[in-house]
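The aim of this short unit is practical: by the end, you should be able to scan a pair of folded records and say something sensible about each. We start with the first protein, listed as its amino acid sequence and then its C-alpha cells.
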Amino acid sequence: MGQSSWAERIPAVKSKADLAYESLRSAIAQGDLKAGERINMDELARSFGVSKIPIREAVKRLESDGLLVSRVHAGVTVAGIDVTEMRGVFLAREAIEALVAELAAQRIDDRQLAELEDVQERMRAALERDVTGEMAELNSRFHQLLAEAAGYRVLGDLTEQLLMTIRRYRITAPLGERNWRSVVDEHDTLVAALRRRDPEAASGAARAHISSQAAHEAEQGGAEGEGAGTKGAGPQEG
C-alpha cells in the first residue's frame, strides 16, 4: 500500500489557527463583526485560550481573503464593501456559475441531485412559513453543492469567496420575499436541466439566474436586489 493511499484516510486535524480563522470568518459573514470594526488580537487570543501566534495566522489568511484590512495607526479592521465593485462580483459569478452548472450537468450523481432538490424544498418551505432569515444559508448551501458536483476544488473555492462577499453585502440590504421567490424559481429551472443532464441548458439557466438577480438589484436601486448595499457595509446572497 502506497503512502498516498493510507495518508488520504487520516482524519484532518484542525489547528488552532484554522479554528480561529473559521470562527472569525463566520462572525464576519454573519455580521457579528461589522465593516470598519477593529480586531483586538490580544482579546481574541484570550477568548480562544491561545497565544497570539494562531490569531495572527488567521488574520493574515483573512487579509488574503479580502475580509480584513491592516493599516498603520488603525490596526486590523473588518473590510468594507465597495458598491462599484459589486458589478464585478456579479460578472464573475455569472461566468463561474455558468461553468459550474455545465460541468455539474455532466458529473452530478443521484445523491448530489437529491441533496440539491432537498435544499430547494427547504427554501420553498421557508418562504411559505415567511421565514426568509433562513434563505441566505440555504442558498449558499445550494450553490456550494452545485460547485461540489462540478468536481473541481478551485471552482468551489471561487464560488465560496463570491458568496461570502455577497452575504456580507446583504446584511445591510437583505433580499425581499419577491426576490427570494425569483431565486427559488430560477433554481428550479437549473435543477430541471441538471436532472436531464443537459450541460447547455444548465449553463444557460445558471447565467440567467445570476443576470436576473443582478438586474433585481439595479431595478431596486440597491434597496433589496442581489448584492444591494453601501460602501463600508458589512453581509446575504441569491
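Turning to the second protein, read its sequence before its C-alpha cells, just as you did above.
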Amino acid sequence: MLLTQTETIIENFVAEILENGNDDALFASGYLQGHLDLILQGCIDIDDNFANFMTKMQASLDSAFAKNELAPHDKTLVVDCWNDLQTEFQRV
C-alpha cells in the first residue's frame, strides 16, 4: 500500500469518528491521530514504505504506553481504535 493511500484511509477513518463517534471514540482517535500524523509525515518525508510506517507506529504507541501516559481504560480505548484502523488498512 502506498503512503498516500494510508493517509486517505486515516483521514476517512477519523472523519467517520468525528461525525458518528461517542466521547470515548473521539478521545481515542484524537490521541491516535497525534501519533499517526507524526509518524506518517516522517515516513512520507523519507519516502518510506507502509510496512515501516506500521512498525514505527507500533513502536511509538508502545513507547507511550511504557511511559504510562494513559490510564488503563484510556489505553484500552486507544488500542481498540488502532486495531480498528488496522482493519481498515487490511480492506485495501
